[in-house]
Design a protein that fits this description.
CATH superfamily of the largest domain: Spasmolytic Protein, domain 1
Number of domains: 2
GO molecular function: growth factor activity
Helix content: 10-25%
Distance between the termini: 18 Å
Strand content: 15-25%
Number of helices: 5
CATH topology of the largest domain: Spasmolytic Protein, domain 1
Glycosylation sites: 104
Keywords: Disulfide bond, Glycoprotein, Growth factor, Repeat, Secreted, Signal
Strand order of the largest sheet: 4-7-10-13
Largest sheet: 4 strands, antiparallel
Number of strands: 13
CATH architecture of the largest domain: Irregular
Order of helices and strands: HEHEEEHEEEHEEEHEEE
Low-confidence stretches: 1-23
Shape: elongated
Disulfide bonds: 27-53, 37-52, 47-64, 75-102, 86-101, 96-113, 125-152, 136-151, 146-163, 175-201, 185-200, 195-212
CATH class of the largest domain: Few Secondary Structures
Function: May act as a growth factor.
Length: 224
Amino acid sequence: MANSVFWAIAVALVLGAEAYMPLDYRCGVKPKSRDNCGPPGISPDECVKKGCCFDDSDPDSIWCYTPWKFEDTICNPAEPKARVNCGYPGITSQDCDKKGCCFNDTIPNVVWCYQPIIEAVERDCSAVEPKKRVNCGPPGVSPDECIKNGCCFNSDVGGVPWCFKPEIKKELLQCAVLPKARINCGYPDITMDQCYKKGCCYDSSESDSIWCFYPDIEDVTIIE
């Protein structure tokens, strides 16, 4: 974990001071990394009621998908000069906390309200090879019942469990992404609030780069 935190600090130094992290970007899962969380044709309301995320902006990706589960916020105050701004001049500690950010005003001439690194847990169904699936439900279990129990469902392959245990990963998520490495999460003229609602990061300090982008993942640890 130490190496990943160091990497995040180094990137933050390059980014500048206008990158913001939303209060809750648990739905900011890149399209290619999404795990299905609902049947075909599920509506946004039905998807959200299931505790899932819905995003239909990419026609070739899963629209109703499993969110990240947040475990901890890492403020890492040891490198004050590497902080990435998460507020505005004069922001109070209470308002900073409401944004899901870190606040430390003990050191002058550095950002006081700054981006944390989020420790999250992800259920990864796509990483489980069919022959290595571990059964996670009774015979004939429905997709909805399977998913409600925290399991994965895929009936594309015969002779293996369709309802099976996911691979559980612990990850570090952060918005300190170099401009050239950003993956677009929005559309032209998207606002900061609209970007946050999509569960993504926003940084308008580079005019020629993507402003609304997916958070980066570092330090992946398989825990199950």
